[in-house]
Design a protein that fits this description.
The complex is a heterodimer of chains A (303) and B (296). Chain A is mostly helical. Chain A is built from 13 helices and no strands. Chain A is flat. Chain B is mostly helical. Chain B has 12 helices and no strands. In chain B, helix 10 (202-238) runs antiparallel to helix 12. Classes of the chains: A mainly alpha (303), B mainly alpha (296).
Chain lengths: 303, 296
């Protein structure tokens, strides 16, 4: 178990390193120089050069990469071009705001998605199942800004409930997208468990159906669902970019968006890397939970 | 983002029924019997027609501004109303089908070709190549598609070509992963062992022996990714990193006009939103149909 965890952690660190390379070099292939981008087209050449030197962007790329990574390891994510101050406070505030939105979305969607999936599995092939499966599929394919705009039209323009714009409306598009995925996973897991030998044994030994479902089926059905929820965390952050933009919500997505628009590369790199770290931690937690909850894997992984 | 094996569990019953009937009909005939598939195809064809003949069908010039008739509600003259520059919304919705229906398939095609190549190499050659590529794939997958996309688009500058290349590159690892799994399954088959014993070269084995056998997987993957590509193009255009104004574009038009929703001008965004929703849903009905027929 310990060996598995160490191995898994090692892989996460390697992935994180590759991610830092991708993020850094993607951010550096920009045409033109940051000094010019910050000061604008009318600044003098010497002022641009002075700023480039001050920002350290006139050094070779590899040197810049190592000084950037060195900074990261000391908790120094860089200095914003736009605000001329360290990026960490901005990232921290934005992350906290986004977390509020994301957690609210997860709190709503996890029980809803699991309930929907289990219900669909129990009535597999019947109209209830078709409605949940097709409805979930349809909802998960419509981009967040489309459902978001329709929600604004219905609630703000139609019903004049503008106070919903702050936290309730932004959560709904995220919930709509994730419902389909989680319900699908829960449905597949439940159907597999319903077909299993242990479920049949439990039924044959005379346990009431409700107890079979609660004790034997749900516990096994929810295992794959945990993984999918963690995978969707990365997706959720992508969704946040759009939703925060649409509802003018000051979160990490909007921060990355405005950094991208303002060519504020240190902010952009730090924001994207933060998103990557959050996602990696979520996946790690999911893997560990999955292993802890599944006795078969607990033994199997040590080899 | 993975395709869940949800449908697999429901199929045994259907197979039993299918075998009860005389001879199993051809797969495409099965498709034509699915009403959801047919509805999807009909909507898709409608938008393709708009993309090709848009300029001819549109009642007005989608770029023509009329400052006297700006923000006017739907009426006989302008069925879908006009936007903040007085442009005809109906015409913009019709012509707006063009760019998204050009960019998304090309991006998906690029991703599918590259992903297939990488997946074949990872699955067939394996070993250290597989491990290294696998790490890179995982690193790219560790970020939301939209975030990776605009990291690159900001670096290169927005254009239709950038959009195609960026989305194609982002799809490459996703498709590679699926193809790799399919290749690993094929590697167990006897025909590969005999091909190797015959002394066939790895390149020939991958392209002539394995590729035809994993093609159904690739076709399904292509249709699924096409849906995501539409999603991504629309979203990036909404965020200002895709098709640029004043070119008519659903995502871009919504971005340009949603700020005026407070004033009650709902028609300026609702119809473009409906267009995107109907396109992605149609595509998913088609994909769902193809997937069900191939898996049964």
């Amino acid at each position: 178990m310990t060996r598995y965890l160490l191995r898994r952690l090692g892989l996460a660190v390697i992935t994180l390193w590759i991610l830092s390379v991708i993020v850094f070099f993607a951010g550096q292939v920009l045409p033109g120089d940051p000094g010019r981008a910050v000061l604008g087209p009318f600044a003098s050449r010497s002022a641009v050069q002075a700023l480039d030197h001050q920002l350290g962007v006139d050094r070779p790329l590899v040197v810049q990469y190592f000084s950037w990574v060195g900074g990261l390891l000391h908790g120094n994510f860089g200095t914003s071009y736009t605000f001329r101050s360290p990026v960490e406070p901005f990232i921290a505030t934005a992350l906290a705001n986004s977390a509020k939105l994301a957690i609210l979305a997860l709190v709503v969607i996890i029980p809803l998605g699991i309930a929907g999936g289990v219900l669909a599995a129990l009535y597999a092939g019947r109209p209830v199942d078709r409605a949940i499966s097709l409805g979930g599929l349809a909802a998960s394919t419509v981009p967040e800004f489309v459902s978001g705009v329709v929600l604004i039209i219905i609630f703000s323009v139609g019903l004049k409930l503008t106070q919903l714009n702050h936290l309730v409306l932004p959560v709904i598009p995220l919930v709509l997208i994730l419902f389909g995925y989680i319900a699908r996973m829960a449905r597949a897991g439940t159907i597999e468990a319903l077909d299993s030998d242990y479920a049949r044994t439990a039924t044959l030994k005379g346990l009431p159906r409700s107890i079979v479902i609660r004790r034997h089926i749900l516990r096994n059905a929810l295992l794959p669902t945990i993984t999918v929820i963690a995978t969707q965390t990365g997706y959720l952050i992508g969704g946040l970019v759009v939703v925060e933009q649409l509802f003018n919500y000051q979160g990490i997505g909007r921060l990355i968006w405005s950094a991208a628009n303002g060519k504020d590369f240190p902010m952009l790199e730090a924001g994207v890397l933060t998103v990557g770290i959050v996602y990696m931690v979520a996946t790690l937690i999911a893997d560990v939970l999955y292993t802890v909850l599944n006795p078969r894997l607990r033994v199997g992984v040590s080899s | 983002m993975t395709a869940p094996p949800a449908e697999a569990a429901a199929t045994p019953g259907q197979i039993a029924v299918a075998h009860g009937v005389a001879a199993p009909p051809a797969p495409w005939r099965l498709l034509l019997r699915k009403p959801t598939f047919l509805i999807g195809v009909a909507i898709l064809l409608f938008w393709i027609a708009c993309a090709i003949f848009g300029q001819a069908i549109a009642p007005h010039d989608p770029l023509a501004q009329s400052l006297l008739a700006k923000n006017s509600a739907p009426s006989g003259a302008h069925w879908f109303g006009t936007d903040s520059l007085g442009r005809d919304v109906l015409s913009r919705v019709i012509v707006g089908a063009r760019d998204i229906l050009l960019i998304a398939p090309l991006a998906t095609l690029l991703g599918t070709v590259l992903g297939t190549v990488v997946g074949l190499i990872m699955g067939y050659i394996g070993g250290i190549v597989d491990t290294v590529l696998g790490r890179i794939v995982e690193a790219v997958l560790a970020l939301p598609v939209v975030v990776v996309a605009f990291l690159f688009i900001v670096a290169v500058g927005p254009s239709s070509v950038t959009l195609i290349v960026v989305i194609g590159f982002i799809f490459t690892p996703l498709i590679a992963r699926t193809v790799r799994t399919a290749v690993l399954v094929e590697s167990q088959q006897d025909y590969l062992a005999s091909a190797r014993l015959l002394g066939e070269r790895p390149g020939y084995i991958m392209l002539a022996e394995i590729l035809p056998n994993v093609l159904p997987v690739i076709v399904v993957e292509f249709t699924v990714r096409l849906g995501y590509a539409i999603f991504a193009v629309a979203t990036l255009s909404f965020l200002g990193f895709g098709v640029q104004q004043p070119t008519p574009d659903w995502g871009g038009d919504i971005a340009a006009n949603y700020g005026l929703l407070g004033a009650g001008y709902w028609w300026e965004v609702l119809f473009a939103a409906m267009a995107i929703a109907s396109l992605v849903m149609a595509l998913n009905l088609v994909t769902d149909g193809i997937e069900q027929v191939i898996s049964s």
